[in-house]
Amino acid sequence: MLLDPENTLFVCGATPVLLLADAPVHDVLPPLTAPDGAVPVCEGWSIVPRLTLCVVDGPGEHGVLVPALAAPVLGGADGGAASGDMADWCTAAEQAGGAVVLSLEQLPEELDWSALLSSGIARGGFVPTLA
User: Fold this and answer.
1) Distance CA 39, CA 65 (A)
2) CA distances from 108 to 19, 61, 95, 116 (A)
């Protein structure tokens, strides 16, 4: 299932994050509660981070394709927000062995990590790269 890039936000960091809004896989991802910041692994899920297309693959027929080059990226080498930073996000995901994938009903106006990880509104967890 193709997800509109406007419903995504790639966040660069030592462990990169992919936020999904209104994703068809939302109800299939496990509920996330990580008040201590220790994000659990999403068993049975994998991610393939590429510059032009990011694939989040789940069990069975579940999965989502994100046109990554057109998606917004927060952070990166210059700390800015531009689609050119997608290469930084992909590199970070490869180095981290995956990314944290969080599915929400809608993207937040501000990134409040403690609220996202402990409020029970997000689903997902750490998704390893496809080996």
Assistant:
1) 22
2) 9, 28, 27, 9
Residue keyed to tokens 């509920």: 31
For residues 82 and 69, what is the distance between their CA atoms, to the nearest angstrom?
Answer: 10
Q: CA 120 to CA 3: how far, in whole Å?
A: 23
The one-character DSSP state at 64 is E
Strands 46-49 and 123-128: unpaired
Closest CA to 26 of 83, 106, 85: 106
pTM reported for the whole predicted model: 0.91
pLDDT digits 0-9 by tens, 53-88? 999 999 999 999 999 988 999 985 544 544 448 999
Specify whether the CB–CB gap between 66 and 8 falls below 8 A: yes
